[in-house]
Amino acid sequence: MIFSKKYTPRWIVFTIDVFICVASVALAYLLRFNFQIPETNVASLYFIIPFVAAIRIISFIIGHTYAGIVRYTGMKDSQRIFITIFLGSVFIVISNIISYYFITKAFIVPLSIVIIDFFTTVFFMTSLRWLVKAIFYELRSSPLKIKRAAIYGTGPAAMTVKTTLEQDYETRYKIIGFFDDVTTRSRKKAEGIDILPISRIETILNNQELDFLVLARPFATVEEKTNLVELCLNNNVRVLAVPSVDSWINGELSSKQIRQVKIEELLERNPIRLDVARINEQVKNKVVLITGAAGSIGSEMVRQLIKFEPKNLLLFDQAETPLYDIEMELREQKQCFNFQVIMGDIADPVRVEEVFRAYKPEIIFHAAAYKHVPMMENNPAEAIKTNVFGTRTVADLAVKYGAKRFVMVSTDKAVNPTNVMGASKRLAEIYIQSLNSKTNTAFITTRFGNVLGSNGSVIPRFRKQIEEGGPITVTHPQITRYFMTIPEACQLVLEAGAMGTGGEIFIFDMGKSVKIVDLAKKMIKLSGLQLGKDIQISFTGLRPGEKLYEELLADKENTLPTHHPQIMIAKVRNYEFNEVKVQMEQLIDLLKEQNHLKLVDSMKRIVPEFISQNSIYEQLDKPLV
């Protein structure tokens, strides 16, 4: 059956197309002679019909007009039919010319017949396909599943979305309009559907006339998208987004690819303007080492840096599977081969020196670190071993082997730390800052808050909890965090690394802090669920070392501006290297004892602003009586 779940065999489609061609030639003659074909012309049909049919058969085989699935007929299928028939007709005309001037002094097929036949063949072949498609979707669509949808945008992507939604037989969509903020287009139509001004969207939402809004405007600003989504969520209207054209399957959009808007897209900011020339000068044809290259930040640094054509990119990490994944991505997707994948631990001096001796990196991006706050609170020795000793190892070797630049990725938790992880990162900052004054290597620190979608980030955890039906666990109703996308953070690291001269701690403009419970509520709405009905939020209490609010020292009293509006330099205390070196050695020597209280107490002596919160180490902060 043509409307069954199985697709119609190609040979049937091919046979029908050939029959249409034969019928079209006969119809062309009838139309040409007003349905009274002269006897002389009737006789010629016995040769002309097989001749035209043969040409059409050959052109169908070459053009693969029969290969498309009829029920999914689209504009590309119609274009293919038009081009195939047109080229076949051109061949008939060429045959006529050859016959007239070189053989019989007569046309094989009258020119008027060729023209009429071309139009009738194209019309019947395309019309039949669109008719079959319409009938198929009419039969498969259930009137109980009709959803009212609107599309934001009027460009090619919006038109493609309309076609795709109308072809979705699992859900029957009724497109009520295109929204566009270009006033000259309002009160007009696109493909028979009204183009509505953005000003009307709130009225339509309030009247509950909409189930879905599809964002199909590629160049919409983050503010535009955020405002639209907020408006829709407040009116219980689901918001869908269209992926970039690059991810469409064979250049065509599938209804399965139209997905719900992700929370990350609402927390994005407008694109960063990079000093590409300066970064290119720093990186191109250089040997660049990235520690922690398999992590969230490290792997994105790899993707960003590979664009600047380094001489050799060294991917150093101890995580085997993620390191393999980024290797395959570079080789298969990006077709890059100027890199080395190196397994190792930054806290292993012998292995790290082997890498420096073999490759002599000129620029180091140090992203390797333990970053999970509660985990490090329970394992301070590991935090010190990796975040402090590991950083010292890589930094010392950078000096020994003459690296030009060392850029460390730090965290906002290093500001007035309340936990072991933040304190360990502050210690690493102190060491490389003090080392900078003693060497020709430029040591630069970059400091920012949480990154969206990173390993251990709250958003992937919330998404998983939503998929499992909840509850979503939030530590405290008032807890807030700063967020930045991974690509944005890495771009700012590159920019800061290129502009730094050595000794600076660059901090990034993280925008506004976000209340985590509000983030959870918004993710629930984006998923089409209702808080309290479909899913719950549970408050679990602050975890060890966790604080309610993060600090960035982003005010004018504590920072200096740079030429980049999103990058500032923190004004912090300077440390004398020889004093720091002794303190670090004493701290690292304590690792042998594995005494957590002694280790944390030593950290607090070096970083006096380290005051523990919600932690067993608060006892170390109590003044002696």
Largest sheet: 9 strands, mixed
- The level of helicity is 40-55%
Oligomer: single chain
What would CATH call the class of the largest domain?
Answer: Alpha Beta
CATH superfamily of the largest domain: NAD(P)-binding Rossmann-like Domain
Task: State the end-to-end CA separation.
Answer: 91 Å
Give me the CATH fold name of the largest domain. Answer: Rossmann fold
Strand composition percent: 15-25%
Structural class: alpha/beta
Mean pLDDT: 81
Question: What count of structural domains?
Answer: 3
Largest sheet, spatial ordering of strands: 10-9-8-11-12-13-18-22-21
User: What is the C-alpha radius of gyration, as a whole number of Å?
Assistant: 34 Å
> Which blocks of ≥5 consecutive residues have pLDDT under 50?
1-5
E-strand count: 22
Number of H- or I-type helical stretches = 20
Description:
This protein is of the alpha/beta class and 625 residues long. The protein has three domains: 10-139, no CATH class; 143-261, NAD(P)-binding Rossmann-like Domain (Rossmann fold, 3-Layer(aba) Sandwich); 276-451 and 482-509 and 554-613, NAD(P)-binding Rossmann-like Domain (Rossmann fold), CATH 3.40.50. The protein is 46% helix and 15% strand. It is built from 20 helices and 22 strands. A nine-stranded mixed β-sheet has the order 10-9-8-11-12-13-18-22-21, with helices on both faces. Helix 15 (420-436) packs antiparallel against helix 19 (577-589). It is elongated, with a radius of gyration of 34 Å. Mean pLDDT is 81; it is low at 1-5.
